[in-house]
Amino acid sequence: MKNPETDSTSETFEAEYTEADIQEMRDQGVSEEDLPSVGKHTFRRSRFIVPRKEQKLKVTIMLDADVLDFYKEQAAKAGNLPYQTQINRQLRKAMEKAKDPKSQVVTLEMLENPAFLSKLADKLKKVA
Q1: Which residue in 15, 88, 108, 128 is deepest, having the highest Cβ count within 10 Å?
Q2: Is the whole model's pTM more than 0.90, yes or no?
Q3: Are 71 and 87 in contact (CB under 8 A)?
């Protein structure tokens, strides 16, 4: 059996099957209804396109050891998701929160910032 072209830019590729190829497929357990006929066949390449939001991309990221250890420990517990999925979900929550202007949160850093505390005190006086 001739191997199909591997040129990914080609829209079609051809494959030729002989009786011996088809018998080999039978021996490998391919059902009769899935077997091609003897001769040349032209196939069209197709692509399954996943929307960008649903794609999983492989990246290299540097994490603090204790952060990674935490998620790996959580993943090791029965019934929990894999650690990479847990990290992805936490990042998604942070991203969605950042996109929502109503979700601004007071952080510990803000509570240690005198300028922020002064403005907060002024706003509280106006409300009271």
Answers
A1: 15
A2: no
A3: yes
Give the 3-state secondary structure of residue 40: strand
Indicate the domain borders of the chain: 12-44, 52-127
- Calculate the alpha carbon distances from 48 to 8, 40, 44, 126 in Å: 14, 25, 13, 58
* Tens digits of residue pLDDT in 92-102: 988 888 887 77
Terminal CA-CA length for the chain: 84
Distance, CA of 92 to CA of 28 (rounded, Å): 45
State which H helix or E strand residue 91 sits in.
helix 83-99
